[in-house]
Design goal:
Helix 4 runs parallel beside helix 5. The protein has 2 domains: 198 residues, Quinone Oxidoreductase, Chain A, domain 1 (Alpha-Beta Complex); 137 residues, NAD(P)-binding Rossmann-like Domain (Rossmann fold). Strands 3, 5, 6, 7, 8, 15 and 16 form a 7-stranded mixed beta sheet that branches. A 6-stranded parallel beta sheet has the order 11-10-9-12-13-14, with helices on both faces. It has 11 helices and 16 strands.
């Protein structure tokens, strides 16, 4: 089979011909229908996480995958060949405290596909170590739902963390209207009565935010962000700032946009450190929350929303051989929604 593999950090992926893995025991071989291209893949490929992730190269990249069941091990139950499935990527050990709590994405010894010892979804097939990581997706096209396994799942968990503090007079701020942000807008509108403010840097992103239901769109190329947020919120600030970028400039905007007792939810991985104004944070009782990916049940909920037709998507499709082009467009900021590889 063909697979896009990383042989050396900082170098382009290579399309290799490798053996199709065999399913045995609990494992399932999935024929890939779609693989989302994520900013995390760029961070990983550049070697920024070498000290955090113990990985032996070469490795097939990609942690955001959906497809059809191709082959099953002898212990697999409840699935049949040809079943459309979304792949939960938070592969945990199953026995640590976090795994037992149903939070396998927070496993003490994680085995995430494309970011660990397991090959990922930038390939024609992916071997999933256990059928318990599969979510049935009858009636859905894998190339459409592949981004839901991360881009759609991550903001869902983040929004659920703060929806209980939102009221009809609340405002939320979404920074980073792209693959994740387009879903975050929808979830805030679905799961809360709050008004959604978004910050974008061009008209294409503004149009995407509008299509997804944003109530207020601030274009940084045309408006003063701080001034506009004050106008929208009557100088009170936002109840929640969801930062999907987490670069130094976006974090500064997020923090300075919060009202008293406001919550900053950290999702993005662009920056390296978080700097907080101590007096401002203490006097205003800010809440700082980290939110990583999502758990298996949350992915099931997202897939069910997709089955009900409640989730809009903005995907740009690329063939596997054009993975380099997809990554280049992502890094340059020219992907409006989510890039998806289709082997």
């Amino acid at each position: 089979m063909k697979a896009a593999r990383l042989h050396q950090y900082g170098k382009p992926l290579q399309i290799d011909e490798i053996d199709i893995p065999k399913a045995k025991g609990e494992s399932v071989l999935v024929r890939v229908g779609g693989a989302g291209v994520c900013h995390s893949d760029l961070h990983f490929m550049k070697g920024e996480w070498q000290k955090v992730l113990d990985v032996k190269l070469p490795l097939t990249v990609g942690h955001e995958t959906a497809g059809h069941v191709e082959e099953m091990g002898e212990l697999v139950q409840g699935f049949s060949k040809g079943d459309p499935v979304a792949i939960f990527g938070g592969w945990g050990c199953g026995i640590c405290q976090n795994c037992k709590d149903g939070q396998e994405q927070l496993c003490n010894t994680p085995g995430w596909p494309g970011l660990s010892r397991y090959d990922g979804g930038y390939a024609e097939y992916i071997l999933v170590p256990s059928y318990r990581f599969l979510v049935k997706a009858q009636g859905l096209d894998p190339k459409d739902i592949a981004p839901l396994t991360d881009a759609g799942l991550t903001p869902y968990r983040a929004v659920k963390k703060v929806r209980n503090v939102l009221n009809p007079d609340s405002f939320v701020l979404v920074i980073g209207v792209g693959g994740l942000g387009s879903y975050a807008i929808q979830y805030f509108k679905m799961l809360s009565p709050a008004s959604v403010i978004t910050i974008v840097r061009n008209k294409k992103k503004a149009n995407l935010a509008k299509d997804m239901g944003a109530d207020h769109i601030i274009n940084t190329s045309e408006e003063d962000v701080s001034k506009r947020i004050k106008e929208i919120t009557n100088s009170c600030g936002v109840d929640v700032a969801l930062d999907i970028v987490c670069a130094s400039d976006t974090l500064s905007t997020s923090i300075n946009s919060l009202k008293k007792r406001g919550s900053l939810v950290l999702v993005g991985l662009m920056g390296r450190t978080l700097e907080l104004p101590i007096m401002q944070s203490v006097l205003n009782e800010y809440n700082i929350l980290g939110s990583l990916w999502g758990n298996y049940n949350e992915l099931r909920e997202v897939i069910n929303l997709a089955k009900l037709g409640k989730i809009k998507r903005s995907n740009e499709l690329f063939s596997l051989k054009d993975v380099g082009k997809a990554l280049e467009k992502l890094e340059s900021g020219n992907i409006v929604g989510r890039a998806v590889l289709t082997p």
